[in-house]
Amino acid sequence: MAFNVLVVDDSAVMRAMVIKTLRLSGVPVGEVFQAAHGEEGLDRLRAHWVDLVLLDLNMPQMNGEELLAEIRSNPDTASVAVIVVSTEGSEARIRRIRDLGAAFVHKPFRPEELRAVIRDLTGVSDDSFDHVPAVSDGSSDF
Amino acid sequence: MLFPSDALTDEQRQLPFTAGVSVRFYGPKSGRLEVRTSARVGPALTANMLGADGAVDAQLQRDALGELGNVLCGNVVSAMTNGIGVFHLHPPRQLDPAQFTDLVDPNEECVDIGLDEGRAQVRLFLSSR
Q1: Is the ipTM reported for this complex over the cut 0.90?
Q2: Residue ranges of domains in chain A
Q3: Rounded distance, CA B55 to CA B88, Å?
Q4: DSSP 8-class letter at A22
Q5: How many domains are there within chain B?
Q6: Residues A140 and B2: beta-carbon distance below 8 Å
Q7: How far apart are CA A35 and CA A107, in angstroms?
Q8: Which domain holds residue B30?
Q9: Which CATH class is domain A3-123?
Q10: Which candidate from A10, A13, A89 shows the least CB-CB separation from B60?
Q11: Which of B13, B58, B95, B112 could serve as a FRET partner for B123 with CA atoms 20 to 30 Å apart?
């Protein structure tokens, strides 16, 4: 099974880093969609089938927490796996995110951390990660 | 990779800042965090973040510096209150290097970082209210 992925972040560099980490991590990735803010993320979700959403919190127009609430309130997207990738350090806000069924990865992150969270969240077994390339060479910690 | 040195060399100290970004925050404390960099830091930072070998364009360099400011600010404000309270961060705003001065406000903390590629400076300003 390949995952269609939506990456929502107002930083093009961060979107590129997340996508690169995804590809290097050995997760079977299908189509990858990108959005620069929450409103654009919702548009992508309406237009495409998405299995996994990785989103930032601090974004203009519609922030990540608002987008997550929208995703959960729509029956078509309520069960989509969501990972919030953010610098957020507020325990209260992280708890709200987890209560909405999303996983949380703190920036800066190591590729291995993101990969582990994806595995936990999607339930993909180790067998699905055959031929996993090394992720540490040349990749940054962010 | 970007490796920081323990202290600025005289050569690093002479390098002018050619780019900067500011991230404003409000919550339990309010203020802004600024990052300033000398000329060779931006391309090296961007290439490092992207894992790129070649040249990276100016827009990506601005984006990378903005993201660095965002990550630093998010972590610093959380550390100030040990994760208690919710901070709101504004999107990073690019600064005009022509407006930079060496003056440090009494409500500001300033840290210089020496790098093989030059130098960077991080300033944290807390508003008094």
Answers
A1: no
A2: 3-123
A3: 34
A4: H
A5: 1
A6: no
A7: 19
A8: 4-126
A9: alpha beta
A10: A13
A11: B58
